[in-house]
Structures are given as C-alpha cells and as structure tokens.
Amino acid sequence: MIYRSFLRPILFRLSPEAAHELALDSLSFFLGAAPIRKAVAARHRGWPLGPIKRFGLEFANPIGLAAGFDKNGTAAESLAALGFGFIEVGTVTSEPQSGNEKPRLFRLASDHALINRLGFNNRGAAQLAENVRRRPPDCVLGVNIGKSHRVAIADAIPDYLTSFTAVYDVADYIAINISSPNTPNLRELQRREPLAELLRALQERNDELAKDKSLRQKKPLLVKIAPDLSEADLEAIIEVALNANVAGIIATNTTVSRDNLHASPAEVQACGEGGLSGAPLRSRSNEVISLIHRLTEGGLPIVGVGGVFTAVNAWDKICAGASLVQLYTGFIYEGPNVAKKINQGVADILRREGFKSLDDAIGCSAK
Ligand SMILES: Cc1cc2nc3c(=O)[nH]c(=O)nc-3n(C[C@H](O)[C@H](O)[C@H](O)COP(=O)(O)O)c2cc1C
Q1: Mean pLDDT of 154-162
Q2: Which class does domain 2-366 fall in?
Q3: Reported pTM
C-alpha cells in the first residue's frame, strides 16, 4: 500500500532506467546489513506450505524474480530477503557490453506494462560470478546466459559455452536465453537444428564440468522461450528440449506484439522497438504454458512468466501447467511485498480449491 501510494509515484517520476538503478542500489544499501536483511526476510515469508522440489533443487516457495532485474547479480542477496523462492540473475554475456543506446526502457502505465530494448547491458559472466560468490542469496539462484552482441549467430555456441563455464559454480540452475527480441537474430536459435546443436554442446560441457567437480548431478539447464512462436515452432522446441534432457522451459520472454494495448498508438509508437512485458503479455504466456503442458503431458517442468501481478495471476499459470512462477514487471508495479502477497494468496487458493499440495494443482485447468 505504502509502495503504490507513496514510493511508486516518486519512482515513476524518474526515467524508468534511473528508477531501476535507484531501486537496485537502495535494496543493496538498506538490506546490506545481515541483521536487517534477516529481520526483513522473516517478515516476507509468505508460503505456509513446505519446500518444493523441482529438477533436483529445493525451493522455499514457488515465486521467483525473473531475469533482467538484477543483470549482474549485485542485489540477489537483498532481493532474496523479499520472499522470493528463487532469483534468476542475468542475462549475462561472455564479455561486458553496454547494450543499446538510451532511452531503451519505457513504461506504459495505463497498461501495467513495460517496453524494453536494453540489449543485454551487463558486466560479463565472470563479474556476475564474483558478485554472487561474494553475496550469495539465501534461496535458489538461477543464472541466465545469452549471446554477446559482437558475436555472429553462427559462432553462438562457443560464446554461450564461455558464459556457461564462467557461471557454472555459482548457479543452482542455468537458463539459456534464446528469446530476447533485442539481440539481432537471437531468436533464430529457437529453430530446430541450431537449438539442438547448442543444447548438445552445453550438455556436453555440463557433463564434463560436473565430473571435474565431482558433483552428484549435472546443473539443471532450462531454456527460455519467446511468446511469439507458432504451435509448430513450439512443438519443434519441445522435441529438441526433451531429446537434450533439459530440466525445464521458462515461458515466456517479452513479446514483440503490440496488440490489445490501452495506450494510444502514438504513445506506443514513441517507445519504438523492444519487448513488451506485464499485463498485456499475460494471456499469451498462459496459452504457451498450456500448450507445452499438453504437448509434454506434464512431463517437462515449466516456469511460467508473463504478466503476474497477483496470486490469481500466478494461480492461472499453475493451472495452465507451470510448476514454478516468475515475475518482473509485477515487481515494478506492485512493489517489494509482491512475492509475499502472492505466496500467501496462492496458498489460500490451494486450500480453498481443496488441493493438498501445489503439485496436485499443476495443469488443473487442462484436466
Ligand atoms: C526491463 C526488462 C529487462 C529484461 N531483461 C531480461 C534479460 O536480460 N533476460 C531475460 O531472459 N529476460 C529479460 N526480461 C524478461 C523477463 O524476465 C520476463 O520474461 C518478461 O518480462 C515477462 O514477465 P513479466 O511480465 O513479469 O515482466 C526483461 C524484462 C524487462 C521488463
């Protein structure tokens, strides 16, 4: 309440990127001291049910922060105290890069949406690894890796392998981003052959590193996909993902569509190109989740993301087939209590609907 009526109006007076940097710095500053962080974490626990097991990892609750908010892993420790069950940091690339020219992040407040064309601005995979090693979050940590801007799409595999190796030790799972609309041609990696080759190379490296380090199991590899795919594209991706033994699919990234917006065409056009996130993405993201759930008969874990602001939004994703849920834009609009509120709300809905556990509810709308 304080956030929406007091803090958000102040933050929304700043440019979206300045507000984002201020929020990240403030979180690190105010929650930097362990006693304060612990006290805040104790107040933000919203999930009354037990831990959740997914791809060999234990999640304290099913609500995570999606990639892109903490690109360099500088605030993961503080963000975890806000009640997220997992934080996905990144996207990082093999070398530092500055991203696209500013302005490159826009609010469509009347739509509860954002448009961004940041273009993977980040300080590089090695720096991210150092940041989270120094200040690890007290929750599951995913690291999201992408292709460097200067690397041609034909040379993507060695580039991903460099990032993969750099973040391997610090990541609980690694997300492969092949779906950002802001790196030219990146989405071509969602096609059958290039994707199969990329995943094969990454899983080989995964095997080698797990053996080298005497790990009990390989790191779970997840693939993050776009919402702008046809059913045939999705079928191909699922087939390749299953063959490559990926641990799950993250559905979805931002959309290039501009359908169903309340903002005026002039306002939308003024933002220019980029990925749209938030409320207008919600139903398409749910459709993609349902489709994957149906195609895999529930056999491949789905991390549902796109337009989650409330417990009902998260619940709809679970019913569509998501076994974990992430959000980004909802965090900007709803504020620091959003994970706690959604966790409490989902637990209430589960009880009301007569489900004994979250697992029983996954894909319930398809049954
Ligand atoms: C400003 C911004 C930056 C983002 N950066 C990344 C990124 O670096 N890597 C990535 O995989 N997704 C990125 N995303 C996509 C989000 O992780 C998420 O998939 C998408 O925004 C849909 O969720 P939402 O509606 O809850 O925001 C970004 C989203 C926004 C709004």
Answers
A1: 97
A2: alpha beta
A3: 0.98
